[in-house]
Amino acid sequence: MIYNNKNIVLIGFMGCGKTCVGKRLALKSGLEFIDTDIEIQRRKGITVSKIFENYGEAYFRKMERNLCKQLAFNSGSIIATGGGIIKDEENVYNLKINGVVVYLKSTPEKIYSNLKNNSTRPLLDNTEDKLQTIRKLLFERKWLYEKYNDITFDVTDFTVEQSADLIYNRLWRY
Ligand code: S3P
Q: What is the pTM of this model?
C-alpha cells in the first residue's frame, strides 16, 4: 500500500477539483474516499450553505476541526478537504499525522470558470464580483497551501481525469 497505508489528503482552493479528482483517485486505487464537506453535511443533515446561513461560519469551522481530529486516526483513505481547512494549523497537524498532503494548484480564472454557475459556496455566493473575491481569498491563502503541502500538482490545464491519472502515476510509483 502506498506510503505505508497513509491517507492522501487533497488541499486547495474551492473549485480546484479536490472532490472530483479524489473520487477518481479512490476508484483507481481502490482506497476509501472521504470528503470533509460531505461528511459535515451528513452529520448535520443540511448543506454547507445552510450551515453557514443558520449557524455561522465559526460553527462550520468547529465541525471541520472536530472532523480533522478524527481523521488523524484514519489510514489508507483519499481525503478531499474544504478549501478553508488550512486556515487552522491544528487541522493540518491532525491531517498530517497519518497523511500525505497534496496541493491541487489552480488559477483564479480557472477556479472562476469552474464555479461561475455554482451556488454552493457561501463565501463566494454573497459577493458582487465572484472572480474578484476568488482572487482576494486565494491571495490570502496561497501561502498556507504552499506551506503545508508535501506535493503540489498544478491542475489548471488538466481535466479531472488527467489530474487524477497524473497524481496516481506519481504517487503509486513509490
Ligand atoms: C470553503 C470551501 C468549501 C467549504 C466551505 C468553505 C472555504 O469547500 O468547505 O464553503 O473556506 O474555502 P470546497 O473547497 O470543497 O469548495
A: 0.97
Segments forming the whole domain that contains residue 168: 7-172
The atom of ligand 1 lying closest to the CA of 18 is: 15
Domain for residue 52, yes or no?
A: yes
Q: Is 48 in the pocket of ligand 1 (CB under 6 A)?
A: yes
Q: Is 108 in the pocket of ligand 1 (CB under 6 A)?
A: no
The number of folded domains in the chain is 1
Residue 132 three-state SS: helix
Write the pLDDT tens digit of every residue in 112-132. 999 999 999 999 998 999 999
Lookup result for grid cell 482506497: 31
Distance 173 CA to ligand 1 centre (A): 30
CA 74 to CA 99: how far, in whole Å? 9
Which grid coordinates belong to 152?
503540489
Q: List pLDDT tens digits, range 31-54.
A: 999 999 999 999 999 999 999 999
What amino acid is encoded at 69 in this protein?
A: K
